[in-house]
Amino acid sequence: MKARIAALAALAGLSVAAFKSWREAEAKREAWNSAVDPVD
Predict the structure, then answer these.
(1) Residue 36 CA from chain centroid, whole number
(2) Euclidean distance between CA atoms 2 and 33, whole angstroms
(3) What is the pLDDT along the chain (40 residues), one digit of tens a residue?
(4) What is the pTM of this model?
């Protein structure tokens, strides 16, 4: 049972980390797009 809980905790941690890095990449793309193609 502890192994299952540990696996779930690791999976949750990984998905949170993946979500954060995806959000960072999204923000970088937004900044890049606005820098390359400035909107009036």
Answers:
(1) 23
(2) 46
(3) 999 999 999 999 999 999 999 999 999 999 998 888 766 5
(4) 0.61
